[in-house]
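# step 3/5: fold
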Amino acid sequence: MNKKATQSTLAQDLKALALDGVNEINVDVGETEVVVNPDKLIEVATALRDQLHFEQLIDVCGVDYLLYGKDEWNTDTSAAEGFSRGVAAGTAVGRMSFGDEVEPLADGESRFASVYQLLSLKNNRRLRVKVFANDNEFPVVPSVTEIWSSAEWPERESFDLLGIHYEGHPDLRRLLTDYGFVGHPFRKDFPLIGNVEMRYDPQKKRVIYEPVTIEPRVLVPRVIRKTTRKVPDVADDSTSAESDAAESKADA
């Protein structure tokens, strides 16, 4: 059975279960995704594990949909200030400084989502589960560590980098950032340059924190342009003959 047929069968199986809390079932580019109400996540996740045999959780990650689809560097030409600058200032957050405000989401739009990648070893099938937090100011979703123990560290990472709180997690604390770090660095409204710099002070013999000294900037891929360099014409036979004769004379 090919991949497309497998995903179609998975979508049919999901529809047949008629799980309460499943808001959407989507199949696109050979991948199946379900969008689940956070209040029903535990029940749906348990059914996916026990009835559809998704016994393995591959990964958990958070997504911030603030300014989704907007960017500063979508162009096929270079920017006025060089290759390293975006061309549409203000459409995204690359030039932000700490504390700047961005355009809020429309009423009713959810900003944060927790995404789960599941694998069924028995049926050789994969499934993506997406859960949107109800509160954009304080996003909370249930922890699935009781269902898949492998979720413990990925949920901590999502909490650390995006500030999504996983209710019921046995040890929800930062995983990658420093002690006392302010903010969540993967959020769209967190400046690319950060909010502080840190360095080791040999006189104080400790790491110290200082305000950021670099300017906000947007780094973009280098634009590939058509060359304007003139390519020399291929030499004609007479020129080639003269060159060969000169080389032979020089060798002699």
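# step 4/5: annotate
The longest helix spans residues 3-17.
# step 5/5: archive (pending)
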